[in-house]
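Exercise 7.
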Amino acid sequence: MGLYEHRADFGFADLIALKALQKLRENRIPNERIKRSLASLTEKLSGIERPLWELKIISDGRKVAVELPGGKMEALSGQMLFNFEASSLKPVTALEKGETRSETDILAEAEQLFRQGLDLEEAGEPAAKVVETYEQALKLNPKAAGAWVNIGTIRYREGHLGEAERCYREALLLSPSYALAHFNLGNVCEELERLAEAVNHYKIALSLQSDYSDVYYNLALVYERMGEPMQAAKQWQAYLQLDNSGPWAGIARQQLNSLLKITPGGRSPEPKKSRARKTQ
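Solution. The predicted structure, written as tokens, is:
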């Protein structure tokens, strides 16, 4: 498999390493993912050269993680996880009569369902199945603003703007400083021709995250629609400072050049079909 260095003699540390490998294979973690996870841990953790020997590596059957003094870290992304064992979670329906669960266990299961929803989205599963998973997470943790945002984005893509707006507003009630929720709500307001409101949410998003390039892009489009070419030009310039060579930079540069040619008293150029709004 190429996952373990063959040695002439085996000590206790080697047995620990082999046991960790066996556990990962029992959890049906593919060999290639194990290799990438071990390489990632070596890169991310200073002083670690042989993760199988030096670290306690665990898995919930989908991801590889490592136990650290401050909690658990997902091996590939480096993201910190809840400090719980996935195998210890019980579905709500599996509880014995009269048995109660701690708040930590409930939040842990909600987090697991949220991540399951992300995986389903990434795998291209039907929207109804994805939304149902996020809604299950919300039943356990009604304060999961990320789940509201993700449901809202699915509804937005389906064209259900009213439902999308409701979801984004729910997220902002829980987390007023959620830049992505303000950005997405700005997109909805623009679609609904509430341009001043869209500008307001875009500006809030930028106050929370000043390097949010997508916001500058969409804000420029709104200002063009509002007949404010100089304001639009400022946003195009800000966007190009952050993204000067990406696939959208050509459109931004073209629009900026057109606006800079406008003389005082002139009018903004007509919108072009190629200038699509950016979404999440």
